[in-house]
Structure formats: C-alpha cells, structure tokens
Design a protein that fits this description.
alpha+beta, 3 helices, rod-shaped, 168 residues, three-stranded antiparallel sheet
C-alpha cells in the first residue's frame, strides 16, 4: 500500500522474530522496483533498538558517573585544602581569646592566599604580644624608676652616703 501510494516510505507493523511465533513491533523501509514490479524492504525490530539504546545509555551513565565522581573528589580535596587552614586560624583565635596566651601560633604550610593569611595572623599576634609586654612592663618600669630615684634622693640626703645616680 505504501509503495502504491507514495512509491517508498516507512512502514510500522508486527512480525515474529526468527525462532519465535509471537509477533513484535518492527519498522521497515520499503521502495518499489518498477522494472520487475517488486517491493524491496528492510526493517529492524524495535525491541532490538530499545535494548541497544538502553545499553548505550547505561554505558554513558557510568562514564558520566565516573567523571562526576572524579570532579566531586577533586572539589572535596580543594574545599578541604581551603577550609582546614581557615579552621586552624579560627581555632587559634578562639584559643587566644579564651586563654590570653599570645604565644599561640598558626601552623603555616604551602604558599598562597591562605598561607599569607596565616603568616599575617602570626605576625599580628607577635606584634600584639610585644605591645602588651611593653604596656604591662612599661608601667612597672616607670614605677621602678621613680622608686629608684626616691631611694637615690634619700641616699644623697644622708650624710656619708655614696653618690647614687639613676639613669633610664
């Protein structure tokens, strides 16, 4: 019918596979051969195409899964390489705040922005530690100098005392 009406085209029908009596879906392409009055056709079973398609989808799915897993692992290690040093810096800040121990330092490894932050943090704490020491002991040094000057004045006013001079 397809050849008579159009000369050629696709035809969908059911036909049993070799070795089976049960008909299954089949798609064929048919074309007329006018000199002999023949209809020549070739077709495929749809379930064979479906099976092949699903096999290809499965293979492609496994490849995509493998690539996604590799990227996921790469992303995990990249995130960890950033998060761990930042967490170390945060832990050092918390420790210093809680203990007032300015000797605490962050372990710095590698090079990059995170290492620069760690080094800057260590330099900041070293500077703060020095400033705190000067402030803490500076007041005491001023008091000690004033006391020494008073003792020197008392000694100078005492007859027969040695000459005492306090310098800062």
């Amino acid at each position: 019918d397809k050849v008579r009406s159009e000369g050629k085209g696709f035809v969908a029908y059911q036909w049993p596979k070799p070795g089976s009596d049960k008909p299954v879906d089949k798609l064929s392409y048919v074309q007329g051969f006018e000199p002999w009055g023949w209809v020549i056709g070739s077709g495929i079973y749809i379930d064979d195409v479906d099976r092949h398609f699903l096999k290809q989808v499965g293979t492609l799915g496994l490849i995509v899964l493998a690539i996604a897993s590799a990227f996921g692992m790469l992303l995990f290690f990249l995130m960890r390489s950033i998060a761990t040093p930042i967490n170390d810096i945060r832990a050092a800040m918390v420790s210093i705040r809680q203990s007032n121990d300015l000797s605490r330092r962050v372990k710095v490894a590698g090079q990059g922005e995170i290492s620069d932050i760690g080094n800057s943090f260590n330099e900041l704490i070293a500077g703060v530690r020095g400033d705190v020491a000067i402030k803490l002991y500076g007041d005491d040094l001023d008091k000690l100098t004033a006391t020494a000057n008073r003792i020197g004045a008392v000694l100078q006013s005492t007859p027969g005392a040695a000459d005492v001079k306090v310098e800062q």
